[in-house]
Amino acid sequence: MPRYSLYWLRNWKFENGSLLTAMSDQLKQQVLDYINSHNTMTLGTCAGDIPWAATVFYASDELHLYFFSAPESRHCQNLTVNARVAVTIQEDYHDWRKIKGIQLEGHVALVDSLIEKAQAMTVYARKYPEVIKLFTNPASGIFYKAFLKVKFYCVIPERLFYIDNEQGFGKRQELAIAGQTN
User: pLDDT by residue (tens digit) across 67-106?
Assistant: First the structure.
């Protein structure tokens, strides 16, 4: 995986202290509410010309999506050769007129400094306090041992789209993300 420090990526993405620019406050709030109200994302990775998709739990800090996973998992192995990803966040809707979701492309950075790990743990514990308690308690046995082997990762979006069929069939709006030219 190309080594991008989260500090570098965050500062590159921020412009005048704001990660999100050139979009309405309403759209920004819809996206953040949707991200915060969901728990899993589908992470699309690729090694060579072989794509792979994995569903992972995530916790967010604005648009930064943190997840932890075993480094030997297929998606993490793919990330070691290609940090570019696609992500979707959605429900399994029965009525196409109600479909909403997030589609994004970006990079994944390994969270490896102590400060970055503390930030990731804080964000994750805020969303999943019981999960963190379970995984960090030596008395939980297998869960604790498994947690010692995982690593935290962070998805940093470069392009992000919000889909909302309730606003119109195929309604898809792009959020402009600072530091990106399309």
Answer: 999 999 999 999 999 999 999 999 888 888 888 899 999 9
Question: Which domain, by its residues, includes 22?
Answer: 6-175
> What are the pLDDT digits (tens) for 98-113?
888 999 999 999 998 8
Count of structural domains, the chain = 1
CATH code (residue 160): 2.30.110.10
Q: How many CB atoms lie within 10 A of CB 47?
A: 15
29 assigned to some structural domain: yes
Please indicate, yes or no, if residue 121 is contained in any of the structural domains. Answer: yes
Q: Tell me how far apart the alpha carbons of residues 158 and 106 are, in angstroms, rounded to a whole number.
A: 5
Question: How many CB atoms are closer than 10 A to CB 94?
Answer: 7
- pLDDT recorded at residue 39: 94
Question: What is the pTM for the complete model shown?
Answer: 0.80
CA distance 67 to 65: 7
